[in-house]
Amino acid sequence: MYRTVVNRILLSGGGRRLLRQPDLRTVISSSRFSTTTETQTIPNRPLNPPDSSSLSSSSTSFQTPPAAGDVPRHERKNPRAEYEGEQARVLQASLRHVLRLGWSEKAMIAGAKEVGISPSIVGSFPRKEAALVEFFMDDCLQRLIDRIDSGEELQNSTPSQCIYKLVRIRLEMQAPYISKWPQALSIQAHPLNVSTSFKQRAMLVDEIWHAAGDETSDLDWYVKRTVLGGIYSTTEIYMLTDSSPGSFPLPSRA
Amino acid sequence: MAFRLVTRNLRNRISFKLRSASLLHSHATSFGFKEVREEDKSQMVGKVFSNVASNYDLMNDFMSAGLHRLWKDRLVSKLSPFPGMKHLDVAGGTGDVAFRILESINSIRHRALQDTINDDLREETRIYVCDINQNMLNVGKNRALERGLGEDKSLVWVQGDAETLSFEDNSMDGYSIAFGIRNVTHIEKALTEAYRVLKRGGRFLCLELSHVEIPVFKELYDLYSFSVIPRLGEAVAGDRESYQYLVESIRRFPPQERFASMIVDAGFHKVEYENLVGGVVAIHSGLKI
């Protein structure tokens, strides 16, 4: 039942972009021990397709359409959105502690305390620190998309200028965390987390190419994205060791 | 008149079948495969555990070939304990889970970042071990002494009933029940109580023997349960009846999916379960939001 719901959500998300449904991944996790078989999730209620603001922590209540004889359900908020909203709030607050405590459980515990939720919630994230890093990556992608949509600066640029600006904008979002970014990279490179981080980078690169006006539909599609992915990653790594003055604008308190 | 008698008999027979069918599904009146009155169940369970208390840990080792240690380790790692946590371990009489949680919080890994805030927080940690049976709690207290945790004020031993806990609302960060919920007369009440005492963001974790569905393995497991375990109980603990009750109560407990839906009904979110050893043991978890 859960899989058909996932399909419905993915299909209805629609739009020209690759769909961003990061939170769904955290729900079904595969177990690491060789003696275990599977982890299964029980959905609280039949799910409604959430809109694309599933990342945002503002509570949007979904009304399930009243079905015959189904009276109590349509008065409840969508419960999955509720706990995911809470998790998103905790992660958002945790980001403020990352500079001090690193991309770690400690930062997440501090974030939970700040929001007023018991730090036990940290245990419910399937791959704890990775959840924080992935949340940050998704958040940055969302902000990048917002910048693209508001789009004044991309108006009269050639594609290569466009790509340059977008990569720069995106990397500058990481600048505040640069002292702890190597830890984030190592978390993303961990075998358990590689597939998710790869997907996130693929989405990022696709988004940048799309904003630059790319419309290829043959093998070049893959080539372009792979090349941009390589450029992005090497720039990112170079940023870690770049200490030249004025290398990137840092927020004043850092 | 004969006709009326016939219909009455027929009705009685049908209603008897319906009644017995509903009894079969009611966990509250099952004591293993026997049917008992609800009021008697907790007393009978109490007697079982008074009998087995002294040999409980030894028998656990024998029956599970030491695997129960790994299962409890997995439960505690899923919990992710943190310094300053208030945790309630229900039906945890001999303290296995509580000791693991304390050791996890005090471990070198957690203390690696030497900040004073954490040390103060660690002082505030409280693990409440609640059990309905005083004998089990006594065994637990002795084990704590052996481990050098006798003076540790983080461990609090409380006698109480899972269906009516004496703790305040929204006071616990975590709630765990390992191999205990099977023995509770009204599972729904225990789940509701768990929901009540947990704080927002608190987690419910339940480790329990559960149902195996894998074809050949299921038969082997049944064979092991019904032939080996009661005999082992007789040899090691001198108590065949208690271990017969044990294996029967496992079969009467609701299967994984149904238990998970009961947890959802109690109000928990993000309810998941993880099967260990093909379903012999399942860890159910839920989040209170």
TrEMBL record, chain A:
Keyword Mitochondrion: yes
Signal peptide annotation: none
Main subcellular location: mitochondrion
Key word Mitochondrion present: yes
Pathway(s) the chain acts in: Cofactor biosynthesis; ubiquinone biosynthesis
Compartment(s): Mitochondrion
Name of the protein this chain belongs to: Ubiquinone biosynthesis protein
Species of provenance: Hibiscus syriacus (Rose of Sharon)
Protein origin, superkingdom: Eukaryota
A GO cellular-component term linked to this record: mitochondrial inner membrane
Keywords assigned: Lipid-binding, Mitochondrion, Transit peptide, Ubiquinone biosynthesis
Domain COQ9 C-terminal: 194-246
NCBIfam families in the cross-refs: diverge_rpsU
Regions of compositional bias (Low complexity) in chain numbering: 52-61
Biased composition (Polar residues): 30-43
Pfam families xref list: COQ9
Gene Ontology terms for molecular function: lipid binding
Protein family per UniProt: Belongs to the COQ9 family.
GO biological process assignments: ubiquinone biosynthetic process
Function: Membrane-associated protein that warps the membrane surface to access and bind aromatic isoprenes with high specificity, including ubiquinone (CoQ) isoprene intermediates and presents them directly to Coq7, therefore facilitating the Coq7-mediated hydroxylase step. Participates in the biosynthesis of coenzyme Q, also named ubiquinone, an essential lipid-soluble electron transporter for aerobic cellular respiration.
Region (Disordered) location: 30-86
TrEMBL record, chain B:
UniProt GO BP: methylation
Binding site for S-adenosyl-L-methionine: 94, 131, 161-162
Protein localization: Mitochondrion inner membrane
Top-rank taxon: Eukaryota
Keywords: Membrane, Methyltransferase, Mitochondrion, Mitochondrion inner membrane, S-adenosyl-L-methionine, Transferase, Ubiquinone biosynthesis
PROSITE patterns for this protein: SAM_MT_UBIE (PS51608), UBIE_1 (PS01183), UBIE_2 (PS01184)
EC number: 2.1.1.201
Main location: mitochondrion
GO molecular function, one term: 2-methoxy-6-polyprenyl-1,4-benzoquinol methyltransferase activity
Iron-sulfur among keywords: no
Signal peptide per UniProt: none
The reaction(s) this protein catalyses: a 2-methoxy-6-(all-trans-polyprenyl)benzene-1,4-diol + S-adenosyl-L-methionine = a 5-methoxy-2-methyl-3-(all-trans-polyprenyl)benzene-1,4-diol + S-adenosyl-L-homocysteine + H(+)
InterPro entries attached to this UniProt entry: SAM-dependent_MTases_sf (IPR029063), UbiE/COQ5_MeTrFase (IPR004033), UbiE/COQ5_MeTrFase_CS (IPR023576)
Membrane topology, as annotated: Peripheral membrane protein
CDD domains reported for this sequence: AdoMet_MTases
Gene Ontology CC, one term: extrinsic component of mitochondrial inner membrane
Pathway the protein takes part in: Cofactor biosynthesis; ubiquinone biosynthesis
Enzyme kind, highest EC tier: transferase
Assembly information from the UniProt record: Component of a multi-subunit COQ enzyme complex, composed of at least COQ3, COQ4, COQ5, COQ6, COQ7 and COQ9. Interacts with PYURF; the interaction is direct, stabilizes COQ5 protein and associates PYURF with COQ enzyme complex.
Family the entry assigns: Belongs to the class I-like SAM-binding methyltransferase superfamily. MenG/UbiE family.
Function statement: Methyltransferase required for the conversion of 2-polyprenyl-6-methoxy-1,4-benzoquinol (DDMQH2) to 2-polyprenyl-3-methyl-6-methoxy-1,4-benzoquinol (DMQH2).
Protein name: 2-methoxy-6-polyprenyl-1,4-benzoquinol methylase, mitochondrial
Lineage of producing organism: Eukaryota, Viridiplantae, Streptophyta, Embryophyta, Tracheophyta
